[in-house]
Design brief:
- The chain is globular and about 35 Å long.
- The chain has helices at about 15-20, 20-35, 50-60, 65-75.
- The protein is an all-alpha fold.
């Protein structure tokens, strides 16, 4: 996503992203994750997440895919 002043071939203007519905935003983030492949951005060893961040990460570990999709739709 880029501001309107920034132009690139693969750019999605922020206005266009804001106008997407939850399913389209979910598809956008899924595609982004697929393009990252196995690349993982490291977190410092001494990092301690907040309580709220820990709750979100715990939600992501749900074995029920429908619950996970519903969660992402609410967030987006």
């Amino acid at each position: 996503m880029l501001n309107q002043n920034e132009v690139r071939e693969t750019a999605i203007p922020t206005e266009e992203y804001a106008s997407m519905n939850a399913e389209e935003k979910l598809a956008f983030w899924y595609q982004l994750a697929q393009n990252l492949g196995t690349t993982i951005i490291g977190v410092p060893d001494d990092y301690i997440p907040s309580e709220k961040a820990t709750e979100v990460v715990d939600l992501l570990h749900t074995p029920n895919i429908e619950d996970l999709v519903a969660f992402f739709k609410r967030v987006l």
